[in-house]
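Q: Given only this backbone (967 positions), what sequence would you predict?
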C-alpha cells in the first residue's frame, strides 16, 4: 500500500472526519470549514494533498502512529488523578537539596496556575515584558542580597547544573589549567553532574576534605565548597578561601538561601561565586523539578555569567525600564564561543521564588529559617540526651546521627510512622527539617530512634555564633510592601497586566512553537501526588510517576521512531548535551576516541555549537546554499576531510529556514558512510509528528522540546524539558543517575540534571496532550500547523518576499519573510516592524534569526483563522506604512514605525507628530481591549553600558519623567 493510501485514506477531505466534541477540536484552531478556506487560498484540495506536496516522499512514515486511542478531557483528568494517588506522599525529611515548602495560595493561583504568567515567552521584547522582567529583577535582588554578592542572573536549571556552570565560569576566568577541587560534603547528585560535564573536556574533578586544608600537591583553577554541607555541617570557609585566592584559584560556594538569612553570606567570606537552588522558596519538590537554580558573582565576573541577566535601562522618552542585559550573550549569536549552551532558564519558578520572598519579606524569611532550625535542634538535643551521637555540633536544618549498624532499621521505623529519613550508610541517618516540619513529625522521628523529647524542647542554638549574619538583606521597598494577600494579589496582577502572553493574542515566533497550553494539561501538576513527592523517595512511593514516565517515554519513542527515550534532561540544551554524550560514549566504546569532529550547518541553532564544544567535540561548519539548504558538496568535502575524526553532524529538520529539505536522507547516508552519527535537532518536530519519524529517515539521536511541540508552557523563558531519544545502538549511553529508582538506569553517560527524571513535575502536561489527541489528532495538528504557515506565506507574499521555500514553493510549519529589500529602500528595520506590531496587539515574530534582517513566523495549529487573518492584516497595514515612508508622507524618524510602540502616556498633552494620535495608537481601529505597552522603545545600548543586576533604589522612580543616568 502506498503512503498516501495508507496514511491518508480517512483524511482526503482535510480533517472533516475529526470529532467536533473531542479535545482535537478544542486544541486545533481552524475548523474544517476554515481549513477548506485556507487550503483554497494555498491552492490544494485537502490537507493530505498539501502535505504530500510539501514533505519529501523519502522521509514519510510508512505506517501511522501506534498510540492508544484518544481520550476525552474528563477521562484524562480522572486518569491523572489516579496516577497522582498512586504516589505516596509522606513527610519528606530526606534533604539532599530538596525540601517540602508551602507555596502561598495567592502565588500558586496567580502565578503557577495563571496563563498570563505561564504562557508568556522569553522577554526578548522588553517593551511588552516589563512585568516578568521586574519579577526577575526581584529574584536577582533576592539572590544577590542573601549571598552577599553584587550580581546574580535570572535563574539557571537546577542546583547541580548551576554548580557546573560555576565550574565552567571559573575555568574561563582562570584558564591556566589544573583541576577543579570539590568539597566532599557537596550533594552527591551535584558531584555526579560535575563529572558528567567536565569529563569530555579532560578536566579532573577532585574531591577533597576542606577540614584538612587545600592539597599542596595539586594545581587547581577553582574550588567548590558546601555551606551548609550535605551532611548538615556548617564550616567557616574564610581562611580556605583566602588560601585558594593566594594560589590563584577562584572559589564557588554551593549554599542554601534560607540558611543565609541566619548565616554570614558567602560574599562576605570572600567567595567569588555562590550557587544553589531557590526551590525551598515556595516551589514544590515536583519529584525533582522544575526548580530555579541561581548563580551570583563578585564584581568583575558579571560578563562571564551564563544565561540571562535583567538590568535597568531607559526608554526613548527617558523613563526607566527593564530589559535583558548583555543580549549578545544569547547562544544563537555566540555559538561555539558561548559561555554555555543554556537557552532555557526557569523563569516561572524564579518568579514563584521571588514572590515568596516579596510576600514574606526579610522578617518572615528569617522566622521560617528559625522555626526550621528549631525543629532540627529539638531532634538533635533529644537524640543526644538519649545517648545517640550527633556527628556535627553546628548545623542549620540537617542532623547527622550515628547509629552503628542499624541505620536501615531506624529509617524503616520512621517510614512506618509516615516520615522519610535518609540512610547515609549502615551507621548514619540524616534528618532534614523544613518549614513544613510539624510537632508530629518531630515526635515520629524521635520514636523511630526510641527517643523522647524533653519537656523543654531544644535549649540551645546549633548555629555557629561566629557565623551569625549581621548584614541586612532585602532592603528594597518591594520586599516590605506586599505582605497582605490583598497587596500581593494586586501586585501580581499589576505585573501580569504589563505583559503580552498567549492569553492576550498570538505569539507568532518562528522556531519556538508557542501553541495552546490547555488547562486540562496544566491542572494536574497541582495534585499533591505530583507536586509534593521528594525525588529520592522510595521507588514504591512513586508508582504513579513510574507509570506516567514509562508511558510517556514509550509514546515519544513511537512518535520519533527511536528505540529508547530518557526524560532526564531538564531543558533542550541539556538534551543536546545528553545526545552528544551518547554519541561520544558510543565511539569510545568502539575504541574510536579520535572521532571528535561535529559538523554543524551554518544555519543551525546556536546552542548546537555550544553543546558540541561542551561534549568535547571540535566544531566544523558546513555551508548552506543561497536557497537556505545545506550545501551537500561542502558536506561531502567536510566528511572526506575529517573521515577519520568524524563523530557526528547536528542538523535541524525541518531546517532552521523552515523548509523540508529534500536532501536529508542523502545527508544521513553521507555522514554514516564516513563513520559519523546523525543528530537531528528536534526543535521543529511540530512539523513531523505523525508524518515522518527522524529515527526512520536516518537519525541516530534527537532531543525533543516538550515546551514546544508537546505543550509544556514556556513560562516566560522556562521551565522546559528536553528528552533525548536514541536508536538502539546508542541506548546504553543514555543519561544515568546514581540514585535512579531503576537500577538499570544508574550507568550510561552519567547524570545531566540533578534528579533522575529531571523536571518530572511537568511531565503530566505532555502525557495529557498525547493522551487527548491520540495518533490521528497529533497528525492533524501537524498538518494544520503546516497549513497555517503556508496560508500566512501565501497572504503575505504579495507584500513581503518569502525568503525560503521547499518543494512546490511550500514552507513547513514556519516561514521567513525578508525585510532587507524594504530596509534598503526605506530605512525601516525589523525592529521597527516588531515594535509596531505591538500597537496592533501582537508579539513580534522571531527577529533576524536565522537570517539578519528577516522575520520568522510560526502560527502553530492552535491559532484560529480569525487571529491569523488579524496578524496578516496587521502586517499588510504595516507594509502600507513603510510605503508611506518611502513616498515621503512621513519622515522615517517621525513615523509611527520608528516611534512605536505607543503608550497611553503618548496620547496625553501636546501632539507634534506628522500622523494622528489614532493612527499611532489605534492602527487597527479603536478597541476597548487594546493592549497598552507600559514603556516606549528601549535604549539597548544604554542598557548594556549600565549593567545593573539589582533593583534600583526607590528614588530612581520618584520622577519617572526625568531622564537620568543609571544609579
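A: Predicted residues:
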Amino acid at each position: 500500500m502506498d503512503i498516501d493510501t495508507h496514511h491518508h485514506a480517512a483524511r482526503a477531505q482535510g480533517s472533516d472526519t475529526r470529532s467536533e466534541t473531542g479535545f482535537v477540536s478544542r486544541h486545533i484552531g481552524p475548523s474544517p470549514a476554515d481549513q477548506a478556506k485556507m487550503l483554497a487560498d494555498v491552492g490544494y484540495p485537502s490537507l493530505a494533498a498539501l502535505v504530500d506536496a510539501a514533505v519529501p516522499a523519502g522521509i514519510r512514515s510508512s505506517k501511522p502512529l501506534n498510540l492508544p486511542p484518544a481520550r476525552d478531557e474528563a477521562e484524562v483528568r480522572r486518569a491523572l488523578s489516579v496516577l497522582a494517588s498512586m504516589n505516596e506522599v509522606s513527610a519528606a525529611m530526606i534533604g539532599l537539596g530538596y525540601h517540602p515548602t508551602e507555596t502561598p495560595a495567592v502565588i500558586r493561583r496567580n502565578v503557577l496556575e495563571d496563563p498570563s504568567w505561564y504562557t508568556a515567552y522569553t522577554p526578548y521584547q522588553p517593551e511588552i515584558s516589563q512585568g516578568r522582567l521586574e519579577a526577575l529583577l526581584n529574584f536577582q535582588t533576592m539572590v544577590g542580597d542573601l549571598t552577599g554578592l553584587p550580581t546574580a542572573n535570572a535563574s539557571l536549571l537546577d542546583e547541580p547544573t548551576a554548580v557546573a556552570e560555576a565550574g565552567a565560569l571559573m575555568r574561563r576566568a582562570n584558564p591556566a589549567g589544573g583541576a577543579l577541587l570539590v568539597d566532599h560534603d557537596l550533594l552527591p547528585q551535584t558531584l555526579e553532574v560535575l563529572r558528567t560535564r567536565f569529563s569530555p573536556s579532560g578536566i579532573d574533578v577532585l574531591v577533597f576534605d576542606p577540614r584538612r586544608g587545600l592539597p599542596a600537591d595539586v594545581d587547581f583553577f577553582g574550588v567548590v565548597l558546601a555551606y551548609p554541607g550535605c551532611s548538615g555541617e556548617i564550616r567557616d570557609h574564610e581562611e580556605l578561601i583566602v588560601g585558594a585566592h593566594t594560589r590563584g584559584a577562584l572559589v564557588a560556594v554551593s549554599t542554601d538561601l534560607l540558611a543565609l538569612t541566619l548565616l554570614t553570606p558567602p560574599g562576605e567570606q570572600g567567595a567569588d561565586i555562590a550557587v544553589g537552588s531557590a526551590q525551598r522558596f515556595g516551589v514544590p519538590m515536583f519529584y525533582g523539578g522544575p526548580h530555579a537554580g541561581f548563580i551570583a558573582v563578585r564584581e568583575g565576573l558579571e560578563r562571564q555569567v551564563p544565561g540571562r541577566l535583567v538590568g535597568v535601562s531607559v526608554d526613548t522618552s527617558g523613563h526607566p525600564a527593564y530589559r535583558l542585559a548583555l543580549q549578545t550573550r544569547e547562544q544563537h549569536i555566540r555559538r561555539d564561543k558561548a559561555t554555555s549552551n543554556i537557552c532555557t532558564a526557569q523563569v516561572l519558578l524564579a518568579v514563584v521564588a521571588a514572590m515568596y520572598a516579596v510576600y514574606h519579606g526579610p522578617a518572615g524569611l528569617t522566622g521560617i529559617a528559625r522555626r526550621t532550625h528549631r525543629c532540627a535542634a529539638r531532634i538533635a538535643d533529644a537524640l543526644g540526651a538519649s545517648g545517640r551521637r550527633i556527628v556535627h555540633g553546628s548545623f542549620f536544618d540537617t542532623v547527622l546521627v550515628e547509629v552503628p549498624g542499624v541505620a536501615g532499621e531506624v529509617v524503616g521505623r520512621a517510614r512506618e510512622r509516615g516520615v522519610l529519613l535518609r540512610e547515609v550508610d549502615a551507621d548514619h541517618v540524616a534528618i532534614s527539617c523544613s518549614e513544613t516540619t510539624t510537632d508530629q513529625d518531630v515526635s515520629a522521628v524521635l520514636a523511630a530512634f526510641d527517643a523522647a523529647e524533653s519537656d523543654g524542647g531544644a535549649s540551645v542554638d546549633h548555629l555557629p555564633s561566629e557565623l551569625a549574619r549581621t548584614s541586612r538583606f532585602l532592603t528594597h521597598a518591594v520586599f516590605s510592601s506586599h505582605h497582605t494577600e490583598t497587596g500581593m494579589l494586586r501586585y501580581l496582577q499589576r505585573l501580569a497586566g504589563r505583559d503580552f502572553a498567549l492569553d492576550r493574542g498570538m505569539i507568532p515566533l518562528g522556531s519556538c512553537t508557542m501553541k495552546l497550553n490547555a488547562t486540562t494539561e496544566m491542572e494536574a501538576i497541582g495534585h499533591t501526588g505530583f507536586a509534593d513527592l521528594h525525588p529520592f523517595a522510595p521507588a514504591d512511593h512513586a508508582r504513579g510517576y513510574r507509570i506516567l514516565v514509562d508511558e510517556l517515554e514509550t509514546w515519544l519513542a513511537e512518535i520519533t521512531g527511536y528505540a529508547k527515550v530518557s526524560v532526564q534532561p531538564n531543558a533542550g540544551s541539556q538534551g543536546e548535551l545528553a545526545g552528544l554524550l551518547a554519541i561520544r560514549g558510543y565511539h569510545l566504546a568502539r575504541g574510536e576516541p579520535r572521532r571528535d569532529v561535529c559538523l554543524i550547518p551554518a544555519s543551525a541553532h546556536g546552542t548546537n555549537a555550544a553543546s558540541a564544544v561542551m561534549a568535547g567535540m571540535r566544531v566544523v561548519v558546513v555551508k548552506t546554499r543561497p536557497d537556505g539548504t545545506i550545501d551537500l558538496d561542502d558536506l561531502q568535502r567536510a566528511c572526506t576531510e575529517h573521515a577519520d575524526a568524524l563523530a557526528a553532524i547536528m542538523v535541524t529538520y525541518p531546517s532552521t529556514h523552515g523548509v523540508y529539505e529534500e536532501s536529508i536522507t542523502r545527508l544521513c547516508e553521507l555522514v554514516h558512510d564516513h563513520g559519523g552519527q546523525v543528530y537531528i535537532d528536534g526543535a521543529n518536530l511540530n512539523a513531523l509528528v505523525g508524518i515522518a519519524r527522524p529515527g526512520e529517515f536516518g537519525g541516530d539521536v534527537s532531543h525533543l522540546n516538550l515546551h514546544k511541540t508537546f505543550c509544556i508552557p514556556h513560562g516566560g523563558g522556562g521551565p522546559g524539558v528536553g528528552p533525548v531519544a536514541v536508536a538502539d545502538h546508542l541506548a546504553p549511553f543514555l543519561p544515568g543517575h546514581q540514585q535512579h529508582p531503576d537500577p538499570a538506569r544508574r550507568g550510561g553517560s552519567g547524570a545531566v540534571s540533578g534528579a533522575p527524571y529531571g523536571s518530572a513535575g511537568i511531565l503530566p502536561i505532555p502525557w495529557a496532550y498525547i493522551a487527548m489527541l491520540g495518533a490521528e489528532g497529533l497528525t492533524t495538528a501537524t498538518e494544520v500547523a503546516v497549513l497555517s504557515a503556508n496560508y500566512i506565506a501565501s497572504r503575505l507574499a504579495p507584500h513581503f518576499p518569502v525568503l525560503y521555500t521547499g518543494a512546490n514553493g511550500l514552507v513547513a510549519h514556519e516561514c521567513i519573510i525578508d525585510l532587507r529589500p524594504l530596509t534598503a529602500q526605506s530605512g525601516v528595520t525589523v525592529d521597527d516592524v516588531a515594535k509596531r506590531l505591538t500597537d496592533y496587539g501582537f508579539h513580534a515574530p522571531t527577529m533576524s534569526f536565522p537570517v539578519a534582517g528577516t522575520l520568522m513566523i510560526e502560527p502553530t495549529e492552535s491559532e484560529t483563522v480569525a487571529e491569523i487573518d488579524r496578524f496578516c492584516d496587521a502586517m499588510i497595514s504595516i507594509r502600507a506604512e513603510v510605503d508611506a515612508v518611502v513616498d515621503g508622507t512621513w519622515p522615517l524618524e517621525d513615523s509611527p514605525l520608528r516611534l512605536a510602540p505607543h503608550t497611553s502616556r503618548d496620547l496625553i498633552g501636546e501632539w507634534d507628530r506628522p500622523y494622528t494620535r489614532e493612527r499611532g495608537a489605534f492602527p487597527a481601529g479603536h478597541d476597548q481591549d487594546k493592549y497598552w505597552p507600559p514603556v516606549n522603545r528601549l535604549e539597548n545600548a544604554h542598557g548594556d553600558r549600565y549593567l545593573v543586576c539589582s533593583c534600583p533604589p526607590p528614588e530612581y522612580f520618584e520622577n519617572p519623567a526625568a531622564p537620568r543616568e543609571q544609579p
